[in-house]
Design brief:
The protein is α+β, with helices and mostly antiparallel strands. It has three domains: about 160 residues, no CATH class; about 60 residues, no CATH class; about 150 residues, Nuclear Transport Factor 2, Chain: A. It is about 25% helix and about 35% strand. The protein contains eleven helices and 20 strands. The strands form six sheets. The chain has a six-stranded mixed beta sheet with strand order 5-6-2-1-8-9. It has a four-stranded antiparallel beta sheet with strand order 4-3-7-10, with no helix packed on it. Helix 6 packs antiparallel against helix 8. The longest helix has 18 residues. The two termini are about 30 Å apart.
Length: about 450
């Protein structure tokens, strides 16, 4: 399955080169996907990457959107001829610098065009665009770079074009609302949906200095051992007999100055023996144990371990390559479970109703958890078993708008203490269900009654 999923990523990446990798959402461009989202109107697909040295805008816009942005004359409105490309590139650069402004640390920066390409689509799909025809199909792919000179503190971004949204039915007067542009922004190891509207055309990112590594939750170290003691029980009469024997030996071996043996000492032996007999009760002598026993975990300690482990499973998918994700998962999952858990989570992120697009994890909410056992597990290892319910918010963004989906799961986990810390060693999903949400509503911002997931 791992190779199958990897090949799926590879096939998807052939459609459009991207700076982001495995968790940047993508769309399988198939007839099913095209029918699901024909976008017979103006649209822009925007990705933003904020790095240490530059801000990069990766923009895919169709000719309908370009014509809504300004005057870009062409001999044939449905396409851009090869000899017209340079003029269109210069005009687009000037328009973007003027209308789609970016200020880094409060200073506006003029973009550098890293790449400009005209994307000519297959005319066989024109039937899906009865309103705009090939103008809706043909696109321009721009990659713009905004250099960062000083330490990054903030990036203020403004989008300037909001033509009517033809995916929404007109009102009684025949008017349609302006589009809302939902861009994907990757910064500091996280993927976020940024929304630009005509009423709120600006968004400001504030740097925190955190990285994907910094966002991993800390798992408590509960490997301390509680010192234990054991007692050696020796009968009192045994101690007395030994003492009496030693007195006899000393009395027969030691001589005084005149050469006589100190038999008087030996004479004490019967007295000692009699005293021992009269006090025959055992004497318990406590001594420090030479071996240490593991401390029994409390329920609070178990939950303190499981919460970060569970959260870090999904944080691993903030990374962009398969090898990075596996390395990050290995911090929470034992080696035998890596492939299984990776594939299960990946499949849960695939939105088949969106043509096979893969959603990115936006939030994980751990709900009811029950500690089922603590101590030796069925595998013979030391650890604990826990029953947990949680919800995952995922989002797919394409054609300038987002589709949110929330899934809920119930699973039993087995957690063991390995040499390098606590690890999830078993995972059995008992229930899973999709919780439908409005495709244009961010579920992480929806109000929930107190105490609910």
């Amino acid at each position: 399955m791992r190779h199958t999923l990897t090949s799926l990523f590879c096939r998807a990446s052939l459609h459009r080169p991207r700076w982001a990798g495995i968790l940047t959402v993508f769309l399988l461009i198939t007839p099913i996907g095209a029918e699901a989202h024909p976008q017979d109107g103006p649209h822009a697909d925007v990705e933003i990457e904020i790095a240490d040295q530059q801000v990069v805008f990766d923009i895919l816009i169709n000719l309908v959107m370009i014509d809504e942005m300004g005057e870009f004359p062409r001999e044939n409105a449905a396409e851009i001829h090869a000899i017209e490309e340079d003029a269109i590139r210069v005009a687009l650069h000037a328009y973007i610098a003027r209308e789609h402004r970016v200020a880094i640390n409060g200073v506006e920066v003029t973009p550098i065009i890293r790449s400009f390409k005209v994307v000519r689509s297959d005319p066989s799909h024109v039937a899906l665009f009865p309103r705009t025809g090939m103008r809706g199909l043909n696109k321009v792919h721009l990659i713009l770079e905004y250099p960062i000179k000083d330490e990054l503190k903030s990036v203020a971004m403004r989008w300037g074009a909001f033509p009517p949204d033809y995916t929404i039915d007109p009102d009684a007067q025949g008017n349609r609302p302006p589009i809302r542009l939902e861009a994907r922004m990757r910064a500091e190891g996280q993927l976020k949906i940024v929304i630009f509207t005509k009423d709120e055309p600006e968004y400001t990112f504030h740097a925190t200095g955190l990285s994907a590594e910094d966002r991993f939750a800390s798992v408590p170290d509960l490997s301390e051992r509680a010192p234990s003691t054991r007692s050696i029980t020796i009968p009192g009469i045994s101690i007395a007999l030994i003492a009496g024997y030693l007195l006899v030996v000393i009395g027969t071996l030691v001589k005084d100055r005149n050469g006589n043996r100190k038999v008087a000492i030996a004479g004490l032996a019967p007295v000692v023996a009699l005293a021992a007999y009269l006090s025959r009760d055992a004497w318990a002598i406590p001594i420090d144990s030479v071996t240490e026993q593991p401390k029994q975990l409390t329920e609070e300690e178990v939950l303190a371990v499981f919460g970060p482990l569970h959260a870090n499973i999904y944080r691993a998918f903030d990374y962009q390559t398969e090898s990075e994700i596996y390395d990050a998962l290995a911090r929470s999952v034992s080696g035998e479970m890596l492939d299984s858990l990776y594939n299960q989570i990946f499949r849960s992120l695939v939105m088949m109703e969106e043509g096979g697009a893969v959603s990115s994890v936006q939030e994980v909410r751990l709900g009811d958890t029950t500690v089922e056992s603590v101590g030796e597990l069925a595998s013979g290892e030391q650890g604990f078993a826990i029953l947990a319910r949680w919800q995952v918010d995922g989002v797919v963004n394409h054609f300038g708008h987002s589709h949110w989906r929330t899934n809920e799961y119930l699973a039993r986990f087995g957690v063991v203490e390995a040499e390098d810390g606590w690890r999830i060693a078993s995972h059995n999903v008992l229930e899973q269900q999709r919780l439908d949400t409005d495709p244009f509503v961010d579920p992480t911002k929806a109000e929930r009654p107190p105490g609910e997931l």
